[in-house]
Every structure is written in structure tokens, then in C-alpha cells.
Amino acid sequence: MPVDPLDNPVWSALSGPQARLSVSSGRFARYRDDVGVFVAVANPADGFDGLAGALPANALVGIVTAETVEVPPGFDVVEVSTVPQMVASDFQRVPIDRRVTELGDANVPAMLELTALTRPGPFLSRTIEMGRYVGVFDGTRLVAMAGERMRPAGFTEISAVCTHPDFQGRGHAKALMTLVADGIVARGETPFLHVRAANAIAIGAYRSLGFVVRREMVFTVLRKSSP
Q1: For residue 225, which of 77, 79, 124 has the smallest C-alpha distance?
Q2: Cα(205)–Cα(77) distance, rounded to whole angstroms?
């Protein structure tokens, strides 16, 4: 029986649409160190034993699976949490009634600053290579952004949705998500995302845009143990 790409989204992305961003070692595939922290195997039920040998010292990795995985030797657990995976088969767009900027390499320092403040999830120096990113500026300061992350076959994940605390409640996130989703749908793909179960405000906002929970996923964050 075929595996749904969203049940193993990292593997589907790295063995397909985002293969150019992949670093493969044996049976493991992961994003380049400057792009993302996620690692995957073709069949998560086979486990992740041997992963430590494929990673540099003190590496931080994220594993996204449909079921809980056994922690492989050589790692310390940073976090294990259940996250709803939400899909918008019928995205409900909102008006984009503000000036939005396409973000590029020159904006990476500002993107790193905003994500460090708001902590929407891992965002590294070359995460921008994963897809399109858009933002809203107040003068020269980036105050809100959203973009694309994983691209499993037929889908694109909306990620790095964040707004500076001083500019929340103005609809920036929904407008930016609409612009990103427009591009995803235009490619014939379906927008999806992951969100922490405790973030009720975000879940409510995503539901208003047409996202529904597809299933609960397990997010496991590990750090390679010191020698």
C-alpha cells in the first residue's frame, strides 16, 4: 500500500522536489546543515540506529514521523512532542491589503533576527533556499514574514509564520500566508503546515484559512551526544 507523502514528509521532500538540498549518508537523508535540521529515512519503522555516525559533532536534528520513534544511540533528547498536521485543500484567502516584499538573500539577517525573537521553528542562514518567503516592513525593520519549507510530493508546507510582538493583531500573518498559498495552489500543490498543539490562537487562525487537522504527527528533536 503506497505511503502518503505527508506521513513521512521529510523523506518525500528530500527524495523528490527538494533533492538538491539533500545530504545523503547511507539510508539517511537530511537537509544541508545551513538549510534545515530535519532528517529522515524511507521507512521510519526501521528506526534511526546508526544516525550518529552520519552527523557532525553536537548536531541538532529534527525527525517528523507519524508514530513515535525509538531514540537511537548517541543522542540526547531535546524534545518529543505531538504536533497537529493541518492541510488546506480549499484555502480561504484574505485580502492582501498591505505592502508585501519578496524576501531574498539581502534580507536574511533581518529574517534571522525576527525568527530568533519570535521562535516559529528552526530558521538557519540558508533556510531561504527551501522556497519563497515574503514579509512586511515597518520602515527598514522586518516585522512579519511567512514562507515555504518542506515540499513533499504534491504539497508545500507553509512555515516561518511570525510577527514581531509590537505588530501583532494587524492581520499580517493571514495576508502573508494568503500570498504564499496563492503560489502553492498555482503550482497545483496543496498547502499544509505543522503547529504546536498548545498554540490554540494559531490553530484557530489556520482553521479560518481553511486548514483542517489531517492527523497528529510526532516531532522529535535530538542532539548528538558529546564524545
Answers
A1: 77
A2: 31
Query: Which are the contacts of 180, defined by CB distance < 8 A and separation ≥ 6?
Result: 132, 134, 146, 147, 148, 158, 191
Provide the pairing of β-strand 75-87 with 212-224.
Answer: antiparallel
CA distance linking residue 103 with residue 143, whole number of Å? 12
**Do residues 51 and 37 make contact, with C-beta atoms less than 8 angstroms apart?**
no
CA 43, CA 114: separation in Å to the nearest integer?
35
* Whether residue 158 has pLDDT greater than 80: yes
pTM: 0.95
Q: Tell me, what's the pLDDT at 18?
A: 98
Residues with Cβ within 8 Å of 51's Cβ and at least 6 positions away in sequence, in order, are: 28, 39, 61, 72, 74, 75
pLDDT classification of 2: cutoffs 50, 70, 90 = low
